[in-house]
Each structure stands twice: as structure tokens, then as C-alpha cells.
Amino acid sequence: MTTVRLSPNPPHGAANLKSRILALAGLFAAAGMLATTAYTRETSQTVRYACPDGERFTVEFHQNHVRLRTGAGIFALAADPSAAGEKYSDGYTVFSADDSQAQLERPGLAPHTNCHPLKQPI
Question: Measuring CA to CA, how many Å separate 89 from each of 17, 30, 59, 80?
């Protein structure tokens, strides 16, 4: 009787093919995420603001919300439809703006008022 031994390791070519397939799948996933990010950025408008007290922040305007970037972090603020003008909040941080100036209110900090958009493009 002849005993056949099965090797626990696949042949070198099969392992190489498997790693290539995994790398290709990762490449497609990354490309899909980049395409989604690019699409999101195309549908938004980004404005940088400077306040008289020295505070600076960036606001990325989307359809029903803004993404506020400050030195303290990034905040997603929902539109407040009951407010006059443009007003956004997450229940703590409030950003409001009109055509010429903006205001930023954060818990525990003095409000930043009379903030003006910077002229240079983002």
C-alpha cells in the first residue's frame, strides 16, 4: 500500500496568485473610496474665516449641514431650518453666517463674532 502525503502549504504559484488577487481587491476598494471622496468635495463649497479676536476656522458647506474645522477638531453641524439666515448646530457648537460675516459659538468659550471670509481660494 502506498501512502500519499498532502502538503499543508499550497504550491508557490497558488500562494502568489492569492496575494495578487488580494492586492487587486484592496486597490479597487481604495479607488472606490477616493472616488466617493472626490464626489463629496465637488458638491461642497469651502470658506475660510478670520475673526477680529484672532480665531480662524474653515467651513465646508454641504446641502443640509456644514463641516466646521477649528484648532479643536472637526465638527459636523446640522442646518437649523427654524433659524433666520444660515445657522448650523450639533446641540453644543453653533455656526451662523450671512453674506458678509459669521459667528461661532462653542461651550465654555466666548463667542467669536464679526468673522469675515478670507479672499484667497482653498
Answer: 51, 32, 13, 7
Who has greater pLDDT, 15 or 34?
A: 15
**Size (the chain), residues:** 122
112: burial class by Cβ within 10 Å (0-12, 13-18, 19+)? buried
Q: Which cell numbers hold the place of 74?
A: 472637526
Coil, strand or helix at 24: helix
Query: Does the predicted TM-score (pTM) go above 0.70?
Result: no
The pLDDT of residue 15 is: 67
How far apart are alpha carbons 51 and 121 in whole angstroms? 17
Report how far residue 55's alpha carbon sits from residue 50's, in angstroms, rounded to the nearest whole number: 6
